[in-house]
Amino acid sequence: KSICVVGLGYIGLPTAVMFANHGVKVHGVDLNPAAVKSIQEKKLHIEEDGLQERLNKAVDEGFLTASTTPQEADVFIVAVPSPINPDNTANLEYVRQATASIVPYIKEGNLVILESTVPPKTVEHIMLPELVKSGLEIGTQIYVAHSPERVIPGRIFEELVKNDRIVGGINKKSAELTKELYETFVGGTIHLTDATTAELVKVMENTYRDVNIAFANELAKMADKLDVNIWEAIQFANYHPRVNVHFPGPGVGGHCIAVDPWFLVEIGGGQAEIIHLARNTNDSMPSYTAQKTQTILNQNKIAGATVGVLGLAFKGNVDDMRESPSTIVIDELQKLGLNVISFDPHIKENKHATQTQNFDEVVAAADILLCLTDHKEFKALDPQAFASRNKIVFDTKNCLDRTSWERAGYQFHLLGDAKN
Ligand code: SAJ
């Protein structure tokens, strides 16, 4: 079997590498020549545990090639972005264009799989009208399925193997062929359904998480009024066998959880009320965080302050800044007239105007340290080893070791904890 993977990003590249490591001939395609070049040269443009070794093996053994144009194959896998437009409607242009780009290379008997997360009905309404242009009959001469990725950045290779997969075919044969293919490396169960159900399931999963996080954020805002530590309360609630409350934070980032619920809002219109409200609640957290920071500074009578932001990535232990709440928190802090200096050990090049690669520089400049990302490096910080001016720290992720910071003389603030 040979596979052509269109889109060599956070999902496409690990998937391509995984098949190649299992002896499948893979050709990867990306519109971005720089991404293609970096793969050919085995230099990674993304950070992911285990990716570098696997990429080296795939390229060295000759199982993975890459270019900016597709080529003939038995299977085509589309793994391109499906972002939202500024008005929160789905942008399916990449999916449409990627599908159109493979049409000249499709032959009878081929299988086309969409991995990107998309609004329900995208396979039917966006992909099939493009694939029909091949002149082949859909469902008998070419097969089409949606097999949404479900892996979590940071643990992609573990989850690619371990997780169950939902495969939705436009007919039974399409689903079965897709299952056979993924059995190459998937150890979890592969469940078969139709394409629209698979599309909905994937979007539902991320929406479940977004709504649950919004619930936690709402509770965190109430903690002040109740004089409780919401992290402790959530931990206790989760000892119940049927309760799994998620955790508050400075906002919800990444290219999935903060995006996918909008697909349902668009489809549901006025009926997607909880989903819509949850999105707004989570989007309110960066400005809530900035205002809390300002309040702490006011309480300490510090004017014209500099905030030292720890963490620019959208979540712990990844190098991805897409849709990161940190960038919005920084904007909000600046709107309040505060100066900002930021540091992220996972983002090696300065990608933000406030960023420095030097932690000591942040400590020296900051009137308050504001932790926005739960990186392992921040958890391991020894506050005895440095001393910031005023010794004030605000942790929005329950990430820092409170006891050691307090022992080092810090005034410790935690989001959702009125017992500060
Ligand atoms: N977050 C919270 N509180 C929590 C959990 C997360 O504020 O309790 C925040 C994180 O800090 C981050 C954002 O939510 O800013 C999203 O992080 P995440 O770890 O929940 O999710 P992603 O975006 O890295 O990956 C999700 C996963 N989906 C689910 O867990 C249902 C992953 O399995 C999907 O494959 C991925 O989206 C995707 O590509 O759709």
Give the key terms:
single chain, 420 residues, alpha/beta, Rossmann fold, 2 domains, eight-stranded mixed sheet, five-stranded parallel sheet, 16 helices, 13 strands, 14% strand, globular, binds ligand SAJ, UDP-Glc/GDP-Man_DH_C, UDP-Glc/GDP-Man_DH_N, Nucleotide sugar dehydrogenase, UDP-Glc/GDP-Man_DH_dimer, oxidoreductase
CATH level 1 class label of the largest domain: Alpha Beta
The third-level CATH topology of the largest domain is Rossmann fold
Distance between the termini: 60 Å
Describe the biggest sheet?
8 strands, mixed
Task: Give the rounded overall mean pLDDT.
Answer: 96
Helicity level, as a percent range?
40-55%
SSE string:
EHEHHEEHEHEHEHEHHHHHEHEHEHEHE
Strand content: 5-15%
Q: Domains counted in the coordinates: how many?
A: 2
The dominant shape is globular
Which distinct ligands sit in these coordinates? ligand SAJ
Keywords: NAD, Oxidoreductase
Domain UDP-glucose/GDP-mannose dehydrogenase C-terminal: 308-402
Organism: Lysinibacillus louembei
Pfam family, one: UDPG_MGDP_dh
